[in-house]
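Quiz preparation item.
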């Protein structure tokens, strides 16, 4: 929360280097409730099991050399759920923070939390701050948890900051001015997005950042998602051709798109 982070260029302006493994994987962990229902268990049993999957997938990401893993844990729309379920989800988040800080630190994982966590209470805010500070220097994996996060909330808070930073400005703002004010300014944009649970929607996740992310949907329910499932998603990713607006021929000829001027409609060369 406190340290200064490098600003990554927008992938719509600069193509990230092609490397064998996606640098940043962002996941909507969906299907906990259905997993529990299938077993005649209460929905919260699915959420508990889902926390175990978080541990397994985090470890799998480290083993695969993924640098950034971002997980959607609670959306700004999830407040609409029954109060009882909301409070169990909050408790699980609090317990995970309490129990995992040491483990994250020992495993050289940097933790970041994005979203408006104040409504979760002082204890959560305090623990989140402590966990982020304690793990800030780690570089093996950056694990970002999106809690009470919404893509629209993120865009609005960034625009509000920008306007406050430039009172009276009449010129247009640019992407480069807005992007560093978004909650995920500590990571490059996701290369691979995964949604478990069969739905094919973004559900107000990283609206800005998913502009050119490869989108992978699997019917597998989150508690059933394992290392093998992650590898399957990555195999699928390897087969994508990331064109970022260019033709296939340009991509295959190694055509680079390196600056925002390349996006100018008046460019002739
Ligand atoms: C995802 O699983 C977890 C959260 C949204 C917190 P769900 O609880 O949405 O599970 P389904 O979609 O009802 O099966
Ligand atoms: C998205 O799952 C949010 C999280 C996984 C935290 P939901 O289950 O809430 O999504 P919708 O409402 O079905 O789109
Ligand atoms: Mg769901």
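Solution:
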């Amino acid at each position: 929360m406190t340290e200064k982070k490098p600003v990554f260029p927008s992938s719509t302006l600069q193509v990230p280097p092609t490397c064998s493994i996606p640098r940043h994987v962002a996941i909507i962990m969906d299907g906990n409730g259905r997993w529990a229902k299938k077993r005649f268990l209460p929905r919260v049993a699915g959420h508990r099991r889902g926390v175990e999957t978080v541990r397994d997938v985090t470890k799998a990401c480290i083993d695969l050399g993924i640098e950034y893993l971002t997980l959607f844990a609670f959306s700004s729309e999830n407040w609409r759920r029954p109060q009882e379920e909301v409070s169990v989800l909050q408790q699980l988040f609090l317990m995970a923070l309490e129990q995992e800080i040491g483990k994250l630190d020992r495993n050289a994982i940097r933790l970041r939390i994005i979203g408006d966590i104040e409504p979760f209470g002082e204890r959560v805010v305090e623990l989140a701050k402590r966990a982020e500070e304690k793990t800030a220097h780690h570089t093996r994996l950056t694990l970002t948890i999106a809690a009470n996060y919404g893509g629209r909330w993120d865009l609005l808070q960034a625009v509000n900051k920008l306007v406050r930073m430039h009172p009276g400005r009449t010129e247009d703002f640019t992407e480069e001015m807005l992007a560093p004010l978004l909650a995920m300014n500590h990571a490059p944009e996701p290369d691979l997005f995964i949604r478990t649970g069969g739905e094919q929607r973004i559900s107000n996740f990283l609206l800005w950042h998913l502009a050119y992310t490869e989108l992978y949907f699997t019917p597998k329910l989150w508690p059933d998602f394992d290392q093998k499932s992650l590898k399957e998603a990555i195999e699928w990713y390897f087969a994508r051709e990331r064109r970022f607006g260019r033709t296939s021929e340009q991509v295959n000829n190694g055509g680079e798109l390196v600056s925002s001027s390349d996006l100018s409609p008046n460019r002739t060369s």
